[in-house]
Amino acid sequence: MSMNISLSASLKGTFTSDDNKIVKPYNILHYFDCWQTPTKVTYEILESEDPKKTYIDWIISVSVDREINIYAEDDIFNLKPPIGTEIYNPAKGHIKELEEFLEDYKDYQIEWFMI
Fold first, then answer.
1. In whole angstroms, what is the distance from residue 102 CA to residue 111 CA?
2. pLDDT, the chain, mean
3. Which of 4, 25, 30, 83 is the most exposed place for a label (fewest CB within 10 A)?
4. Number of structural domains, the chain?
C-alpha cells in the first residue's frame, strides 16, 4: 500500500459573545483531492522546499495528451460517428483546480501531509 500525498487548508480561531464571556473555538478544515502518489513521490513532495511545484511537476510527468472524440450536441448517447476530436490532458484541469484551491484558501494554513 502506498503512502499518498494530501493537502489541507485550515483556519483556527475563537468566537466570542458581545460581552466577551462566551468563547467558542472553531477549526475550519478543507481538503484538496490530490492524485494518488507512489510513496517515493510522496516523500519527495514532503521533503521539497516547494511542495506545490514538486507535486505539479509529478502530475505533468505522469499525464499524457489523449485524443478524445467529440460528438454532436444532440447525440447524447454517442451512437453516431464523432464529428471531430480534441486533445485532452487531465493534468491541466487538475493543476487549475489546485491553483484555485490555493487561491481560495490563501488566508488559511496550508499543509501538505502523508496519508
1. 11
2. 95
3. 25
4. 1
